[in-house]
Amino acid sequence: MPLPTVDPDWEIRATAFQTLEWLVTRHGPTLAWDVIQRGFDFKDQHLHFATKARGIFRPKEMRGEGPLSIKTIIPRGNRPVPYEESQKGVGVFVYKLQGNDPDNRDNQLLQWAWKWSVPLIYFYAVEVGVYQPIWPIFIRGIDRERLECTLSVDDEVLAERERSVPMVADARAIEIRRQYVTVQAKRRLHQSRFRLEVLRAYEQRCAVCRLPRPELLDAAHIVADREETGDPVVPNGLALCRLHHGVFDTDLMGIRPDGVIELSQSLIETRDGPTLEHAVKAFQGQHIHLPRLPRDQPGQRFLEARYERFRKVG
Ligand SMILES: [Zn+2]
How far apart are the CA of 237 and the centre of ligand 1, in A? Predict the structure, then answer.
């Protein structure tokens, strides 16, 4: 029996992961199909991440029997399933097998990936033509009766194998790396869900200046997520552009519990060119723009806690 390290395509996978890391840094956590279909370079070749028509994809350049990626297929005329319904807990997803035969060619690729715990990319559809790439993700089980498999960003099986099979000289380095990647994957998942919901609530605009470019918007926490009460829920979020996120996070700008913007004394006293005057100081005393739905609006307790901090710093 071959050793589980024998994934002849690990270099291709690693390159694909690195490219995705770069793409989400540049475009944000969700990617339009146009961006995904440009693919990635590996050595002197150009490979695809996925193809439009297929859910399970293995580039012909790969030598092993596992796929590189899987992608949500939305039946024509349907909308994507809401995030809450497609997840079985954070980081665990259910994915439909292809067709009705669990042993057809595509599904065999999944079986192989499950058997050897190979890390995959999941292009999870959040809108028609918009995907959130989730990686590394592993197949945790295949249900032949229900024709579905379970995907997870944690791989307990791989961890177990790495402990029991001494595969490389520095197994510890691998273990650290493995923990890092799955923790990162989970964190990304949390963050992008929060971002998606907050930006949607604020209709893809900055709550301060109304800038309407999602690629320049962040979902800011009102109470920071490192604090105990800093839950990643919409009432603890604000859609802010990069500039206003920056001044808010550094307490140069505060938001009163009634939603009025207050700048720090030091900022008010600073005189400078048009960016400071028009893009920051002009908002002193103005009201932030709130989401239409009351349940999405900032929670009083979050605003109060944060404003208190701003006052203390000031
Ligand atoms: Zn702004």
Answer: 14
Could you tell me the two tokens for 102? 């669990």
| Higher-scoring residue by pLDDT: 117, 229 | 117
Overall size of the chain counted in residues: 314
Query: Ligand 1 center to residue 194 CA distance, Å?
Result: 19
For 152-192, give the secondary structure using H, E and C. Answer: ECCCHHHHHHHHHCCCCCCHHHHHHHHHHHHHHHHHHHHHH
Residues 6+ apart with CB under 8 A from 100: 147
Distance 206 CA to ligand 1 centre (A): 5
Q: Which of 19-23, 72-76, 123-127, 204-208 has the lowest mean pLDDT?
A: 72-76
Q: CA-CA distances (angstroms) from residue 6 to 25, 66, 296?
A: 31, 12, 49
Looking at residue 2, its pLDDT comes to: 37
Asked if residue 111 has pLDDT above 90, the reply is: yes
Distant-in-sequence, close-in-space partners of 179: CB < 8 Å, separation ≥ 6: none
